[in-house]
């Protein structure tokens, strides 16, 4: 990836802050003393604040988003699928903030109806694209078929329950709530949490063969590491601050539901395989390297 145009695209997203400020400045003398700033799913106002607070809130939330997206985007490497999906996701969410602030001003100045559904559709599409890009990033090529030397599973029923309980609560709220916006938000949250719970419950499958290592989940190949790409490996500790599930950006990836595992160094980066018995993973890797060189 050419980093100069990439940095320019990251910098351009910061134009959202002057765009929001300019919109308020042009309309400032015509704004009422209290702005309608919060709306239900039908577009009816149900929250108000002074223009100064509305501007500070809009700029503050947008600035936090920009800082987070800039940090993430400056760290991505090589994986075009994830990189462009993340860039598009960032632009969509920041664009939503600009659109939301512009819609608030138009509602208060001209009485224009607030339409939340296009925004929701854009966020959903961008989220799907981001998930697809994440699954597609750094997968590597299919390994040549060969005898399976060992297969390990790294799962966590405990994390499955931890994620599944709030998912069930959100689903219940979705069913009983009469607020359309709340039902949509809770429903989407429940779907995400249920998928994460299923991922934790079923776990990651590590398949070792003389061709290399494959990491799978739900039968989907997440990543392949050819045997000749494996440089060294050792048992290591995983910090809880790193989070769980599929972690990492660029050349460093982790598949982990516990605080122990094995860190593999390859020719292009690192891969952390979570497991409660790292000695088994090391043994399987030893066998893999032995058969790969035979």
Q: Could you characterize what this model shows?
A:
Helices cover 54% and strands 22% of the residues. It is of the alpha+beta class. It has three domains: 3-136, no CATH class; 139-153 and 203-294, Roll (PH-domain like); 156-202. The strands form three sheets. It has a five-stranded mixed sheet. The protein has a four-stranded antiparallel sheet with strand order 3-4-5-6. The chain has a two-stranded antiparallel ribbon with strand order 1-2. Helix 2 packs parallel to helix 4 and helix 4 packs antiparallel against helix 5 (116-136). The protein is elongated, with a radius of gyration of 24 Å.
Instruction: Give the overall form.
Output: elongated
- Please indicate the percent range of residues in DSSP E strands (runs of 2 or more): 15-25%
Tell me the radius of gyration: 24 Å
Q: Give the N-to-C terminal Cα separation.
A: 37 Å
Structural class: alpha+beta
Q: Write down how many β-strands occur, each being a DSSP E stretch of 2 or more residues.
A: 11
The biggest beta sheet is recorded as: 5 strands, mixed
Low-confidence stretches: none
Question: What is the mean predicted local confidence, pLDDT?
Answer: 83
Strand order of the largest sheet: 7-10-11-9-8
Task: Determine the fraction of residues in helical runs and give it as a percent range.
Answer: 40-55%
The helix tally amounts to: 8
Strand and helix order? HHEEHHHEHHEEEEEEEEH
Whole-number tally of structural domains: 3
